[in-house]
C-alpha cells in the first residue's frame, strides 16, 4: 500500500522471539492494513529457530525495518523501540505470535482524531489456538469513568494486543523499569496519567499455546513481578497495594481451580502467603473441601 504522509504516522512494533511458525501471519496482518501510513519495526531478540531467515525474506518483499539483537528480553525491546526507533505519533505493539484485524490501525487512529486529548485506546480481541482457530472473544468494559480502578480490580481488561497509545504518553513514562511485565507497568502508568478510551470493536487475535509467557511454569515468578510493580505504583499513587495484589492473586487462583485441580494445588504450594487475604482463604477452603461438605458448611454458617 502506498503511504499517505498527510495522515498521522503509526509505528507498529513487533518483538520477535522463536515464533517462526507464526511470524508471517503477524507481518502480513500489518502490511495489509487499510490505513496507509504505517512504520513497521521488527526487533528479533536472538531467535534460534527460523524466524530470522523468514523475516529477511518478508523484509525483501515489504521493506520494513528489521533489527537483530542478542537476547535482552521484552522490557529492553519495549524501552528501545518505543523511545528511540518509533517515529509515529501513535504506537502499537503486537507480539510475533499474534496478529491484527486488517482495519485495526484505521479504527484506532479515528478514535484519537475524534476524541482529542486521549493518551491510549483499546478494544476487543479474539483468542486463537496454534492453528489460528478462533476460540473466544474477549471484550473490555466501556466504562470510561474510573478506568484505573476497573483495571486494578479486574472489572475490565486492557490487553496489550489491543492497545494503541501516543508516543507522547510513552515518553512521559520512559524508561520502564526492568521487569518481566512491562505491559502491566505501561498500562498502569498511562491509564493513571492520561485520558483513555475503550471500544468493543475487535482489534487483534491473541494466540494461546504452550509457549506463552504467562504459562503456569512461570506463574509464581510473574506473580512476584506483579507485586513489585503494583507496590511501586500504589505507593506513588497512595493506594493499597496489598489489597490490589490480593484481589488479583485470588482471581487467578479461583479461575485456575475451576478447571485444573492439579495445577491449582501446585500453584498453591509454591505461592507466597504475603498475597493472601480473607477472600483467598475462602477460595482455598472451597478448593480443598469436598463439594457437598463445602455446600453444607456454607449454608450452615450463612443462616
* Strand coverage percent: 15-25%
Number of domains: 2
Low-pLDDT stretches are: none
The main pleated sheet reads as: 9 strands, mixed
Q: How many H/I helical runs? A: 12
Level-2 CATH architecture of the largest domain: Alpha-Beta Complex
Within the CATH hierarchy, at the fold level, what is the topology of the largest domain?
A: Spore Coat Polysaccharide Biosynthesis Protein SpsA, Chain A
How does the helix and strand content classify structurally? alpha/beta
Helix content: 40-55%
- Secondary-structure element order, N to C: EHEHEHEEHEEHEHHEHHHHH
N-to-C span: 67 Å
Nearest-integer average pLDDT:
87
Number of strands: 9
Plain-language structure description:
- The mean pLDDT is 87.
- The protein is of the alpha/beta class and 303 residues long.
- The protein folds into 2 domains: 198 residues, Alpha-Beta Complex (Spore Coat Polysaccharide Biosynthesis Protein SpsA, Chain A), CATH 3.90.550; 87 residues, no CATH class.
- Helices cover 46% and strands 19% of the residues.
- Strands 1, 2, 3, 4, 5, 6, 7, 8 and 9 form a 9-stranded mixed sheet that branches.
Brief characterization of the structure:
Helix content is 46%, strand content 19%.
Secondary structure layout:
Blueprint: E1 10-16, H1 23-31, E2 38-45, H2 51-62, E3 65-69, H3 74-85, E4 90-93, E5 99-100, H4 104-114, E6 118-128, E7 134-138, H5 147-152, E8 164-166, H6 167-173, H7 182-193, E9 195-207, H8 219-237, H9 241-257, H10 261-270, H11 278-288, H12 291-302
Parallel strand pairs: 1-2, 1-4, 2-3, 6-9
Antiparallel strand pairs: 4-8, 5-9, 6-7, 6-8
Amino acid at each position: 500500500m502506498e503511504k499517505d504522509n498527510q495522515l498521522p504516522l503509526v509505528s507498529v512494533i513487533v518483538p520477535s522471539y522463536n515464533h517462526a511458525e507464526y511470524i508471517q501471519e503477524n507481518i502480513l496482518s500489518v502490511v495489509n492494513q487499510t490505513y496507509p501510513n504505517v512504520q513497521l519495526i521488527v526487533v528479533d531478540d536472538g531467535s534460534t529457530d527460523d524466524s530470522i531467515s523468514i523475516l529477511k525474506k518478508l523484509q525483501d518483499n515489504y521493506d520494513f525495518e528489521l533489527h537483530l539483537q542478542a537476547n535482552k528480553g521484552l522490557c529492553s525491546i519495549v524501552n528501545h523501540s518505543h523511545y528511540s526507533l518509533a517515529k509515529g505519533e501513535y504506537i502499537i505493539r503486537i507480539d510475533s505470535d499474534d496478529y491484527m484485524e486488517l482495519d485495526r490501525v484505521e479504527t484506532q487512529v479515528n478514535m484519537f482524531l475524534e476524541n482529542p486529548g486521549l493518551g491510549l485506546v483499546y478494544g476487543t480481541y479474539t483468542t486463537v489456538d496454534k492453528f489460528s482457530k478462533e476460540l473466544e472473544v474477549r471484550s473490555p468494559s466501556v466504562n470510561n469513568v474510573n478506568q484505573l480502578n476497573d483495571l486494578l480490580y479486574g472489572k475490565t481488561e486492557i490487553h496489550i494486543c489491543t492497545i494503541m497509545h501516543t508516543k507522547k504518553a510513552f515518553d512521559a513514562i520512559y524508561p520502564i523499569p526492568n521487569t518481566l511485565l512491562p505491559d502491566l507497568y505501561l498500562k498502569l502508568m498511562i491509564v493513571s496519567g492520561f485520558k483513555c478510551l475503550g471500544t468493543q470493536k475487535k482489534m487483534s487475535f491473541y494466540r494461546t499455546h504452550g509457549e506463552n509467557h504467562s504459562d503456569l511454569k512461570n506463574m509464581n515468578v510473574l506473580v512476584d513481578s506483579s507485586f513489585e510493580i503494583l507496590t511501586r505504583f500504589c505507593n506513588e499513587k497512595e493506594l493499597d497495594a496489598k489489597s490490589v495484589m490480593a484481589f488479583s492473586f485470588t482471581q487467578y487462583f479461583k479461575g485456575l481451580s475451576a478447571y485444573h485441580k492439579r495445577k491449582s494445588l501446585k500453584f498453591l504450594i509454591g505461592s507466597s502467603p504475603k498475597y493472601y487475604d480473607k477472600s483467598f482463604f475462602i477460595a482455598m477452603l472451597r478448593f480443598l473441601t469436598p463439594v457437598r461438605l463445602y455446600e453444607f458448611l456454607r449454608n450452615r454458617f450463612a443462616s
